[in-house]
Amino acid sequence: MREDNYTMEMKTFRRKVGEVDSPFDYIQQLVADGKLNGEQLLQMLADDHNLLDHTHVRQCVDAGLLKEDDLEKAGIDQRFTEMMGEEAQDVLPQVGRIDKIDADCTEVYFWGIPTSGKTCALGTIIKATRSGEVCRSMRVKNHSQGLLYFQKLRQIFEDDYCILPGRTTVDTNFAIETVLVDNNYKEHNVTLVDMAGELFCSIVWRDNGSMNLFKEKHQEALEEFEKILVSNSSRNPKYHFFILEYCKNDRRDDDFDQNTYLESGLSHLIEKGVLDKKEDGVFVLVTKTDLAVRDAAEQGVDVNEYLINFLNRRYRNFIALLEDHCKKTGICGGKLPRPIPFGIGDVCFQHLCRLDTTRANRIVEILLDPPRSKKDWWKFF
After folding, report:
1. Which of 30, 144, 174, 334 lies at 20 to 30 Å from 323 by C-alpha?
2. Distance CA 372, CA 284 (A)
């Protein structure tokens, strides 16, 4: 690859390996055609540790195209090279149903689309509640509908390194009833609700008549949403975290981009009256912001300022819809809080992670001291 074409060729390679059925076969074909060699592949991995899945890197090592020692010299953590052949040991439950939230608590909802990082964000937040840094302890009630989901998720995120879990299915909605104890020994009843990632997608598919995508299970998921947050909605205060993936702005899933899914999902919540109580709150959580930190540094600006500009440029109407609704209903003190940058740690080979709860601690602080009045919201603006 010529130096002046390197960036463009790397972008093309990244796009291609994301499209083909077998990235390793694609790489082998490039090598056979004389368009790629081990040194060039190593350089691309040095520049982007998430260029390939860990199983495909393992295949390249086994085929002699790469060497483990060279990967470490390229700046890749030795623990990641040791994990390349490992398989995820814990499988998350694939079916979970909720009709209503019975507990007297603060309800916390996580909304996003598939692969937005929603499940990994929740796993890291759970880890943060148990680390002792901002929360003394965290207990899950034994009758909790999401108990098994919590136990599996906790085990995945227990250690400093992990293999990240795959996407959950449209059938999986879980409510994890917890008791968080702060450093003053005060108990906080918080229910963490993880709604299916395909729920927002289902709304777009249904409204556009995309019946090849919208199936009976998606209709059932929407009906379940109606029960939890409309017909059986509790009087509990509710906080909604909209999970927006930083690097997904140019990618499409089933013909639609992240912006379309988020706007349609938000419109559905507004029309159903889900976000109308002044006691409620909304936050925009931008995941996978390690790239945003890098991009902000390159421009010489603070990452928070960079994210505000990024959202106003790429997701201006979604943000405007949230701002208008906050002003109209008075939720969040009448103003949308500034976006929260979020990351789970150092991700390598797409599915391996050295966990870091620094940013998750900020979410735990919100759970322990949720804003209730207009004055409480000022610190988020």
Report:
1. 174
2. 18
Dist. CA 293–CA 287, nearest whole Å: 11
Enter the DSSP assignment of 337: P
In sequence order, which residues have a C-beta less than 8 Å from that of residue 119 and are 6 or more positions away? Answer: 92, 153, 165, 167, 168, 194, 197
DSSP three-state, residue 312: helix
Q: List the pLDDT tens digit at each of the 381 positions of the chain.
A: 444 456 667 778 888 887 888 999 999 999 999 999 999 999 999 988 988 999 999 999 999 999 999 999 899 999 999 999 887 665 788 777 888 899 999 999 999 888 788 899 999 999 999 999 999 999 999 999 999 999 999 999 999 999 998 777 776 789 999 999 999 999 999 999 988 778 888 888 888 888 888 888 888 888 888 899 999 999 999 999 999 988 755 667 777 888 999 999 999 999 999 998 888 899 999 998 888 887 888 889 998 889 889 998 999 999 999 999 999 999 999 999 999 999 999 999 999 999 999 999 999 999 999 888 878 888 887
Q: Residue 302: which region, alpha, beta or left (left: phi > 0; alpha: psi -120 to 50)?
A: beta
